Fold this protein.
Amino acid sequence: MTHPRDILLGAQARTGVLPVCDHYSGVEARMRKSLQLQAELTRQFGACVFDVTLDCEDGAPVGGEAEHAALVVELVRGAAADARVGVRVHPVDHRAFEADVATIAGSVGARLAHVMIPKCESVADVERAARALDAAGARQLPLHVLIESPGAVNRVFDIAAHPRVQSVSFGLMDFVSAHGGAIPAESMGIEGQFAHPHVVRAKLEIASACHAHGKVPSHSVVTEFKDREALKRAASRAAREFGYTRMWSIHPDQIRPILEAFAPTEHEVETAAKVLEAASRADWAPIAYGGKLEDRASYRYYWQVLERAHRTGRRLPHEVAEWFAAPHALNESRDT
């Protein structure tokens, strides 16, 4: 039987589907705890609700890059079979970049979900990273890129268009500091980052570029990790006002608020399920529901609501839950 995802999304069926939270850690004890927490929440929710990205750029001590890369390999090998683990390597112009890729992708590339390239400035940087992965025997690995400068924002549509790029993230703090003091420090804060026009413009450009090319826009970190409600408000704004479908976490306490903020409401899930169940019975022809016309355009939207509910561990109505129990649906994130 043809899966609703293939009917409704067609050629887009293998793009834009990732867990809504990407959790970063670079210290050994925290990396191990992150992988353990991922396994625990996967068992709790019945789906992998966040990625773990092991960090070489900020995690490796100066002079200890090779040892840190070897540690990442060890951790990936020891992760659960269904774990989703990525790695952030050093920037392409860093002396450790080639060694990072050769060691990690060359050893455990088949176990990785993605490779994050920080400080990506151009399509040329993406090409260089792709060549390094290919040389390491990891041609299947998608690239995630981090946009951290005004120039990179200016080129983000070209970067997002590259077929190897799966997701584009925004590096808030580096972006602000790249302006030489022209943007005030409060623009890196939990409120200011949604107010300063240059930061707002950068966020919107990145999200627009991703949606134009079927890629996943990933929102920047919030450093105030102790204020759970403030974090949840920021995550909600990123999702509902700025068009982001994924967000970074830098502390375990941030993961659940991000999941809650990016999850559809119970009412949204219920409506989506009812509309799509009726559409399925009509073989996806237009229907009348609640006094309104519904057709393929709205079906596509409602399907994406259900996908987001599944990726955030929300309980799905029984009439649509079977669509997410099939191997096709369970593996869609890894196949992206």
